[in-house]
Amino acid sequence: MSGVLASTAAAVGIIDKAVGIAKKLADDGGELDRATLKLELANLMTELASVKMEVVTTQVLLFEAEQKNKKLEEQLKDKHSFSFAKGVYWKEGDDVAFCPKCFETDQKRVHTIFRDYKIVGFSRIEQQNWYCRVCDTTYEITN
Ligand SMILES: [Zn+2]
Predict the structure, then answer these.
(1) How far does CA 138 lie from the centroid of its chain?
(2) pLDDT number for residue 3
């Protein structure tokens, strides 16, 4: 937001200069010769063009900040819909566990696969677990 504040401050400074020129034209308009009047009008137009550029810059910065804010809101909302229990992550209304390693390390929401066995070495052992095929991690189901 510091960019927005700087850009807004610059725009206000330029508007002040433009108002100063307009005031001079209003006060001394009748006494100024045609060449000076033209010059002051050209200065006024330059200041107005500058302020337009600053406002466009502010608009772009605000748009970017708004997009970033929206993304953060979505991430926060998504984060709140998950809870951690029994060594894995759960999402409301979903009875398949999410991998905690992928969730916490890579911020990825990866469904695990329910298995009733695990492989240890070359042996197949009967044991219920959640298995993540993305990071190849097995989470034992504990009660
Ligand atoms: Zn994983």
Answers:
(1) 34
(2) 87
The rounded Å distance from CA 135 to ligand 1 centre is 4
Task: Give per-residue pLDDT as tens, 52-65.
Answer: 999 999 999 999 99
Nearest-angstrom CA–CA distance, 77 and 63: 21
* pTM of structure: 0.59
CA–centroid distance, residue 122 to ligand 1 (Å): 22
User: In a 3-state reduction of DSSP, which class is residue 56?
Assistant: helix
Domains of the chain by residue range: 2-80, 83-140
CA of 134 to the centre of ligand 1 (A): 5
Question: How remote is the CA of residue 69 from the centroid of ligand 1, in Å?
Answer: 28
If you measure from the C-alpha of residue 136 to the centroid of ligand 1, how many angstroms do you get, rounded to a whole number? 6
First to last CA, the chain: 48
How far is residue 129's CA from residue 88's CA, in Å, rounded to a whole number?
Answer: 11
